[in-house]
Amino acid sequence: MLVIALAKGALLGDSVARLSQVGMDFRPLLAADNRFLQMNDPHTGTQALLVRNQDVPVYVARGQAHLGIVGYDVLRESQAEVAQLVDLGFGHCRMSVAVRQDSPYTCALDLPAYSRVATKFSHCAREFFTALDLPVELVPLAGSVELGPITGMAEAIVDLVATGRTLRDNGLVERDVLFHSTARLIAHPLSYRLNQYGLQELTAQLERIQVHPAHKTDFEHIQQREP
Amino acid sequence: MSFQPPTGSRDLLPLEVIQKTWIRERLQEAFHRWGYQRVVTPTLERLDTLVAGGRVRPERVVQIQDRDGIYGLRPDVTASIARVAASRWGQVHHPQRLYYVANVFRPHPQRGHCQESFQVGVELLGAGGLLADAEMLRLLQDGLTAIHLPPWRVILGEAGLTRLWIQGFPPVWQTPVTQALIHLDRVALGQLPSPWREQALAWLDLRGEPAQVFQQLSTWELTPAQWQRVNHLKSLVELLPAGFPLVVDVSLLQPWDYYTGIVLQVAVTQGHTVQLVGQGGRYDDLVGAYHPQGKTVPGIGFSLNLETLHQQLLPLGVLPHRPARPDWVVIPRGERAYRAALDHAQSLRHQYPDQRVELALTPPQEPPSQGVVWVDASG
Q1: Degrees to nearest 5, angle at CA A166 with A165 and A169
Q2: Fewest C-beta in 10 Å: which of B100, B124, B233, B366?
Q3: Cβ–Cβ gap B183/A222 under 8 Å
């Protein structure tokens, strides 16, 4: 049975909608009172697993799910060995550096060496500051990173920004964009190579109906990857 | 204080050792039938050896430092074997058929801790060409059949062909295209400008049944050097027995870029999941990286991961499922019978060299069911 890992939260609605365009019906997962963590679609013989964002690449890299839909931000942070098949074009957001509105720093390079940077995305943040050749002290947090600069625990944050409202409401201002992110269709590499359950054709179908991505990163993300 | 083994390592208790030995012995028997001989190389190598020729990046090696220099725990055995081949240059006759059973160590890609695993693998040195490639694939089939591995398939690529094809791209894109192929990154290839994008995506999806792939390739405009590689692959497939489970995949590239010819992955399907149990390929330039004058011999090999094979075979019930039991238990009747019991147990061992004879060190709680010998002081 083809198994697809879907991320709970903001991407779920669009993910289910996109899969419905290739005949898979996982709409019951969207019900407000849904408690099921997995669901079978009898018409296509596929199964959806409902997991946390960060766990989508884990299920896919280990082959327990053949496909997954997850944000590029999560993929880049996890460095998981998964095949990126299609940029699905929804769930747009950006990974940004933000500081307090009243701080003198106008861009990341203005930050003094060994500034403290609070983030949930340590890998992305480290990669970015290493590329700038700017040593910083990362403060890994699990959430509400905006509090870092507010409380004085950090000079800056690296976090996902969708509309920018949370930043504004908390007196922060965006200074640099690390990269733009959209939802990606990912696959277990070996399953894709072996074309299990017709993955190649399914990918082609999803690619045909994709909305063209708003931001082209022009190899930016793979050039960052280790050779 | 914790006395657990370090993260990434584990203790193997008798039952698991018996099961893994069962797998290893069957593979070894297959290797012996093909004339392969075992070599043992050091667990610890100089870091320079492990990273020679840009084969592996230093951060992918678990490093150890002492006053004489920096060493690494071997991440695979191929480097050691290539080093040996280069240092014994001129002293050995080729081809050399070698196999190894070894633990290897790699840092965890995300968390960095040292991960130990066990590999069984073969290397055929000093023979290039079609027949050596065919020997490797047929030997692999023999080994996997001997251990009753559930449905497996070989994904076969040609690193030389793929690299020649990448050289057709403008130089600035060659590295990103290589990375995109290694990681199966369709999104990255989709960002190339037309007509490169269409070409790259078509190449990425060129895989499947051999006949169908060669049929599709026949419509491509390839250079003579590329055709030579395609024809080699085609001839190789013709040398395989009918029904050899094969997927030809021209975009298969390994992150280790020392492969120069065929590359392969071995996949096993169980239920709806598929797992990688082995990989390998041809490396015709690697030995040269260890030779002072850069003299090289062609080489080809594959390695199988013993843990993954064990995981795959365990639910099938083909592995021994309980620790070995004694065939005989010798029980002394009191302290005065110790000498006689020891002597009797020893004579049983001589009489039945293939059987297990145990001494009861404490009086048994319940009488063992068979093979019991009570011995009194008189013998």
Answers
A1: 80
A2: B366
A3: yes
The predicted model scores a pTM of 0.90
Distances (CA, A) of A179 to A76, A101, B274: 10, 22, 33
Percent pLDDT > 70 in chain A is 92
Residue of B nearest to A217 (CA): B191
Asked if A195 lies within 8 A of B207 by C-beta distance, the reply is: yes
Beta-carbon contacts of residue B184 (< 8 Å; ≥ 6 apart): A83, A84, A85, A187, A189, A192, A193, B204, B251
Alpha-carbon distance of B294 to B282, in angstroms, equals: 18
Radius of gyration in angstroms for the set of CA atoms belonging to chain B, rounded to a whole number:
26
ipTM above threshold 0.95: no
* Phi, psi values for residue B375, rounded to 5°: -125, 125
Contact B188 A195 (CB under 8 A): no
Please judge whether B187 and A79 are an interchain contact, meaning their C-beta atoms are less than 8 angstroms apart: no
The per-residue pLDDT for range B150-169, each reduced to its tens digit, is: 899 999 999 999 999 999 99
Contacts of A130 by beta carbon, 8 Å cutoff, 6+ apart:
none
Q: Are the Cβ atoms of A219 and B176 closer than 8 angstroms?
A: yes
DSSP secondary-structure letter at B117? E
For residue A74, the chain B residues in CB contact (below 8 A) are none
Phi, psi of A137 (to 5 degrees): -105, 115
Provide, as residue numbers in chain B, all residues whose Cβ is less than 8 Å from the Cβ of A86.
186-187
